[in-house]
């Protein structure tokens, strides 16, 4: 019952009342330390009161709980060294990481905890010492891996075509070799080494990604932008395309260019995932993801309707014309593709002035230009501009969340020998088996001195005002004018002294 009340207090809107009641309940806890403590008992979702405060974005309760856990080590003048308990914060030995819970929640208030002590210092320590070097090395390794795969695709086994052409529009001069012909020369053996590296890399990607999908859940794993959800979809699809290409090569099936092309596009697009390691580029990956899966997905439904309608009209108009003179609409699929290019203004309106164009082509093309170019494209630009404005106001906060998500990911994937635990064990200071982070805090004495000056000036103004009020109440009506003049003189004197005091504060600042 006590643990349930603690979880309820974390969710209370009245933060001050919740903190006082929280302390009151813990004062009756018999097991204040150890696994039997009320603060360490999780709820049905596996969240302790401390983790629940982080998930809900309750910064007041989080800071209150951190103040209860800190230990003052020593003080010397303005310098103070504090030990913060990071037992539940550090993701090194936690199955359900506190940092991962914060970046995976949909509440923006929770991400503000990443800028509080000691979470900010812990993330900075992990990222600067281990996260950034390992992430940069991983980015370089992936780029070299993609370069190897690209070279294998460029020099794939081809041979000249031997059959005759059946159509005047058939332009194929090379065809794919059979499996027995693909690995004969020395150059083929070099390509085989690169292909084996590519296949092994695809298998490693699947082995790394699939356990996280099963642990977190597909909806949460692919749906969270900060966790890199869309990029996880891209890299898993890329690995599947590599395996499909391998099967088609081993079975000598024609058409391997289809999965190979998809793999090249997806593999190189995944390089944008590594931009999150840099503060200048990290927020732009968030913008791209939100634009593609937000603005662009909604806009594509409208675009598909417009393209389908006008492409059908163009195909009907040129259905009776000679396709050799106007080949952009010679069949229905080509009409769809040409209309798509016209929609994005990639090409100009197809027109052959050596022949007579149908009259309805001019009418339909005029309506298409008004709707597509002037209206819908400007609508898309406005939508993307609004998304860019919203993300730009949160770019520092989003980049910190990206750094936390990347740090937790690397800490889980890398061996323990490459990523030691951060912090100091409490046994060194007689504080048990808990782990602490040492942080040095500098107290500025001038700041406290100026605060005392401010309070003194405010108190002087209040005293002068109270004295003037008492004079007004005690004197009669005949002395009212005299007392009012004295009051104004007293208050003017007060304002003068207060004004001098504030001038001193401004100069000190």
From TrEMBL:
Subcellular location: Membrane
Transmembrane stretches, start-end: 134-158, 192-210, 231-251, 257-275, 296-318, 359-381
GO cellular component, one term: plasma membrane
Keywords tagged on the record: ANK repeat, Membrane, Metal-binding, Phosphoprotein, Repeat, Transmembrane, Transmembrane helix
Membrane topology: Multi-pass membrane protein
Listed GO MF terms: calcium channel activity; metal ion binding
Superkingdom of the organism of origin: Eukaryota
Pfam families, sorted: Ion_trans
GO BP term, example: calcium ion import across plasma membrane
Ion transport domain residues: 134-394
Coarse class of the protein's main subcellular location: membrane
Protein name: TRPV5 protein
Organism of origin: Chaetorhynchus papuensis (pygmy drongo)
């Amino acid at each position: 019952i006590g643990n349930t009340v603690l979880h309820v207090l974390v969710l209370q809107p009245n933060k001050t009342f919740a903190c006082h009641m929280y302390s009151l309940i813990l004062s009756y806890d018999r097991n204040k330390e150890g696994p039997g403590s009320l603060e360490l008992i999780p709820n049905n979702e596996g969240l302790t009161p401390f983790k629940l405060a982080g998930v809900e974005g309750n910064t007041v309760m989080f800071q209150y709980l951190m103040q209860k856990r800190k230990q003052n080590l020593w003080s010397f003048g303005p310098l103070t060294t504090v030990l913060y308990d990071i037992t539940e914060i550090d993701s090194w030995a936690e199955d359900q990481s506190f940092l991962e819970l914060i970046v995976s929640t949909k509440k923006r208030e929770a991400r503000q905890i990443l800028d509080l002590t000691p979470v900010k210092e812990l993330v900075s320590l992990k990222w600067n010492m281990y996260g950034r070097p390992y992430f940069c090395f991983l980015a370089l390794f992936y780029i070299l891996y993609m370069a190897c795969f690209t070279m294998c695709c460029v020099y794939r086994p081809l041979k000249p075509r031997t059959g005759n052409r059946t159509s005047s529009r058939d332009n194929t001069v090379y065809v794919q070799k059979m499996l027995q012909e693909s690995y004969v020369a020395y150059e083929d053996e070099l390509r085989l080494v690169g292909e084996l590296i590519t296949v092994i890399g695809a298998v490693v990607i699947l082995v790394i990604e699939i356990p996280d999908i099963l642990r977190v859940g597909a909806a949460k794993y692919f749906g969270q932008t900060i966790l890199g959800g869309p990029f996880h979809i891209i890299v898993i699809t890329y690995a599947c395309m590599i395996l499909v290409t391998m099967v088609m090569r081993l079975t000598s099936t024609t058409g391997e260019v289809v999965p190979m092309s998809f793999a090249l596009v997806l593999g190189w697009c995944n390089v944008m995932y590594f931009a999150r390691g840099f503060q200048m580029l990290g927020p732009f990956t968030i913008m791209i993801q939100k634009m593609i899966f937000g603005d662009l997905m909604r806009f594509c439904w409208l675009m598909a309707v417009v393209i389908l309608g006008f492409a059908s009209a163009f195909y009907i108009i040129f259905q009776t014309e000679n396709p050799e003179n106007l080949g952009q609409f010679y069949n229905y699929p080509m009409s769809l593709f040409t209309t798509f290019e016209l929609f994005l203004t990639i090409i100009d309106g197809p027109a052959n002035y050596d022949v007579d164009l149908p009259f309805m082509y001019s009418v339909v093309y005029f309506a298409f230009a008004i709707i597509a170019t002037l209206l819908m494209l400007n609508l898309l630009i406005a939508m993307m501009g609004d998304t860019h404005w919203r993300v730009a106001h949160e770019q520092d906060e989003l980049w910190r969340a990206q750094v936390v998500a990347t740090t937790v990911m690397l800490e889980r994937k890398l061996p323990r020998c490459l990523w030691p635990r951060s912090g100091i064990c409490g046994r060194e200071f007689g504080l048990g088996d808990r782990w602490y982070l040492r942080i040095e805090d500098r107290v500025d004495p001038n700041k406290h001195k100026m605060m005392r000056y401010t309070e003194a000036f405010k108190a002087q103004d209040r005293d002068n005002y109270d004295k003037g009020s008492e004079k007004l109440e005690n004197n009669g009506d005949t002395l009212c004018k005299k007392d009012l003049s004295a009051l104004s003189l007293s208050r003017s004197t007060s304002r003068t002294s207060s004004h001098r005091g504030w001038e001193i504060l401004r100069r000190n600042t």
